[in-house]
Amino acid sequence: MHVPVQFGFSAVYGFSFAMILSLRPIMIVELFGLEKLSNSFGIMMMFYGLACLSGIPIAGILRDATNSYLVPFLFAGCTIILGGILLLIVPPILKRERRKAILLRRKLHQMKYQTAHSSKPS
């Protein structure tokens, strides 16, 4: 009875994890653009590696300090929630920065146009 349940949970976990992996590049392109995909993906994977490298020792230190596994699990859950909150905050900031860049380009274009037309002899 337990074996089919374990297979079911394993299948759901596998499909869920595969969806997360396949959506990462799409999210990066949507947030930062296609021209920054390779750099953004590299930086993301660097931080992913640092988190994997430091997460286990931190969890061990918390477990040893509290003699309970509850605190490390709560810490891991809080970091996941913090990452989700940051993911909600980043798109509006990027949108505002893009608007600023567009306005700056328009202003520079207008200045070039005005200097080009004002320097013409009558």
Distance between the termini: 93 Å
Q: Roughly how much helix do the residues carry, as a percent range?
A: over 70%
Instruction: Using the CA coordinates, give the radius of gyration.
Output: 24 Å
Strand % is under 5%
Number of helices: 3
Average predicted local confidence, pLDDT: 88
Shape: elongated
Largest sheet: none
Number of strands: 0
Overall tally of structural domains: 1
Poorly predicted regions: none
| Global structural class | mainly alpha
Report on this model:
With 122 residues, the protein is mostly helical. The longest helix is centred in the C-terminal third of the chain and has 49 residues. It starts with a helix and ends with a helix. It is built from 3 helices and no strands. The mean pLDDT is 88. The chain has one domain. 90% of the residues lie in helices and 0% in strands.
List the helices and strands and how they pair.
Blueprint: H1 2-32, H2 37-66, H3 70-118
Keywords: Membrane, Transmembrane, Transmembrane helix
Transmembrane segments: 12-34, 41-63, 69-90
Pfam family, one: MFS_1
